[in-house]
Amino acid sequence: MKTFLTICICAMVTAGIYGFADMAGDVKNGTMIRYDQDDEEYVDVSQGALTVGILNNNATKTQAVISETKTASKQQPEIKLIAKKKIVVKDETVVEEKEVVSVNEEKFTTDVIVDSVPKEAVKEDLEINYREFSRGAPRKHKSKKHPKE
Amino acid sequence: MNSRILSAKNAITFGVFVLFWIPVTLLSLLLVFNTIPYFSFNADMPFLETREVLYAKPVWRICFYVHIAAGSFCILTALVQFSSWILKKRKKLHIISGKIYVFVVLLIGAPTGFYMTFFAEGGVGERICFMLMAIFWFYSTLRGFKAAVYDKNFLSHKYWMMRSYSMALTAVTFRIYHIIFDKMGMVHFDNYSLSLWISVFGNALVCEAIIFSQSKKYLSTLKF
After folding, report:
1. ipTM attached to this prediction
2. Hey, are the CB atoms on B110 and A12 less than 8 Å from each other?
3. Which of B52, B115, B122 is facing A53, going by the closest CB pair?
4. Triad B204, B205, B210: Cα angle to 5°
5. B150 to chain A: which residues are within 8 Å by CB?
6. Pairing status of strand A35-37 against strand A42-44
7. What is the distance between the alpha carbons of residues B62 and A70, in angstroms, rounded to a whole number?
8. B50-61 pLDDT, tens digit each
9. What is the per-residue pLDDT across A54-93, written as a single tens digit (0 to 9) for each?
10. In this structure, are residues B169 and B203 in contact, taking their beta carbons and an 8 Å threshold?
């Protein structure tokens, strides 16, 4: 019986030491679970949870990429002026090309591919006078002629 | 003794039985019943969904499943321990059931629970509360077992085991308080924290009050 009680006390002490060491490791690595409160439910918002979510769930992965992009965009210099904007249609896929000038006046070009545009919308876009993009809001071309690409 | 006093005493005993033991038994069985789905070892359970990081740890995962299994055993075996009929007529059952309870608490339930307290929900205060609960659960069970086996002091054994059971019963009372405060519209975090503290210290205080009311030698059972 004494052996049993000794084993029990050892088990309890080991659990305490191992738990403390495990927790300290988590705190050190920044993977300690943090229970944060949402309006309706608990959400595990720790970095570790995010990592596990990325591995296990594609939806979480997408969400994480979006949030990372948002964070990155916040760090980028603020866009000051759109200097040029044109839309190119390639195989019913609308490619919007923007040339922008940032705050630090570095020119760069971005391509935005819109791949979920219905065909009707693409046809309607074809009637837009793209040369007017540089002057402000696009206006529909009154003539029935399609613009030359 | 006067027959009126006797009948009043019997009525009180019956009232306590109805008001305390029947709800406790039913709620304990409900708690055990609710842990059964967890043994599908599926991570989609409500409790585990918010603990993805912990679930990824093999040690925590093993401790969790072992702890809920041990807790179920503890609650079920403890139900038969306080029956005076079993103690008088079926003493062997009391001894066997008691040994299972002690074995499960000391070797499995308390150590795994103690490890899990470091990652428990809530802040530092709640974790400390869980730790105190695990340590006191272990200590009171150890003292109760020692009092019966080594010291043959069955009064002390009874009271230490009552203290041990009061800690085991926090799993039930915590849920009762949690539901009550939730119905009162309390925010989840506050509700969780308050339910935990009340269930641990409330159970301990109620237990001490019962022991104090029963025993004239109360202080002699408290020798540390």
Report:
1. 0.86
2. yes
3. B52
4. 100
5. 1
6. antiparallel
7. 38
8. 888 888 889 999
9. 455 555 555 555 566 656 555 555 544 444 555 555 565 6
10. yes
